[in-house]
Amino acid sequence: MNRYNSRMENAQSTEHFAAARFIKVIGRGKDGARGLSRADAQQMYAAMLDGRVSDLELGAILLAMRIKGESVDEIAGFLDAAEASFEQLSVPGEPSAYAPIVIPSYNGSRKMANLTPLLALLLARQGVPVLVHGVTQDAGRVTTAEIFAAMGLVHSDSVQQAEACFVRREPAFMPIGVLAPAMARLLETRRSLGVRNSTHTLVKILQPFKGPALRLTSYTHPEYLAMLSSYFATAAPAARGDVFLMRGTEGETVANARRAQQIDWYHAGTCTTLVQTQSTADANIALPEAPDAASTARWTEAVLRQEQPVPATIAEQVKHCVQVSRQLQAGLLTR
Question: Which CATH architecture has domain 101-330?
């Protein structure tokens, strides 16, 4: 029995989780609250995922964490529980020359064209197994899922369908509700509470593969840069693979086509800056005529046909992704 199935059976046979002792620690306001240990955070978040926490207690936990902010140990424990809550993926067939690359897509775009699909397709056509996961729709934004649909790329409704995409050298897109249903349920609490919660951070740093993978992650606020940098440097299991961390392009983990942002590479607790921030914008780069899904899909297809140039910042991001993915898979990374 695998870890996911064992956990689901245990959850079905376990009674209500009493969360009061955890709420006492985290629920005393921004100045009075304390952080949970990694083990306690894992235990509490596992119960939240399993549905063993009452609605009243769940709301208290989510708002307490929103006010207090997550510590490194809490994020580490939450992620330990999250990655044990769903069926993880493999790359079938002959061993690939590349470790999988994971691209979260939860923001989409509002003003700029969303070029996450281009990044995923450029990587996949080089033979890299690419998993994109995220939301399918977001009011007022253009999602990666909508652009993929406009290009005729079908979403994966199971682990097996996603793994088949890797064999065909296509990026697999899995809605979060398919990849990690329990996490999707916690994301939906935003509709009731009106604010984001810890799960919105966790989905952006998930590693959904059984073996090592390269995760592309992003942040939008400086406090998250500090916390995530510390997590990847001190608490992230090295055996789970490597991470590229960058400021998001409207929240997406694709390089800004007009102005490069810094990309930091975390490997075994060591941080290396791969790309420096670009101080000036390139106003001449050809981009989609409009940021809607159909226009972005047409432009992306033209780039793939080499009728339009790949933006230099994205080409550089692809180069670094391919290089680290290959080295990670070959086990050649040394420091």
Answer: 3-Layer(aba) Sandwich (3.40)
**Residue 197: beta bridge partners?**
none
Which backbone phi and psi does 272 adopt, to 5 degrees? Answer: -130, 130
CA angle 254, 174, 140 (to 5 degrees): 60
Q: How far apart are CA 322 and CA 316, in angstroms?
A: 10
Rounded Cα distance between 14 and 11, Å, is 5
Report domain extents, the chain: 3-83, 101-330
Full-prediction pTM beyond 0.90? Answer: yes
Strand segments, DSSP code E, in the chain are: 101-105, 130-134, 172-175, 213-219, 241-247, 263-267, 270-275
Contact by Cβ (8 Å): 130, 99: no
User: What does the pLDDT look like over 64-111, one tens digit per residue?
Assistant: 999 999 999 999 999 999 999 999 999 998 889 999 999 999 999 999
Question: Which superfamily is assigned to 3-83 in CATH?
Answer: Transferase, Pyrimidine Nucleoside Phosphorylase; Chain C (1.20.970.10)
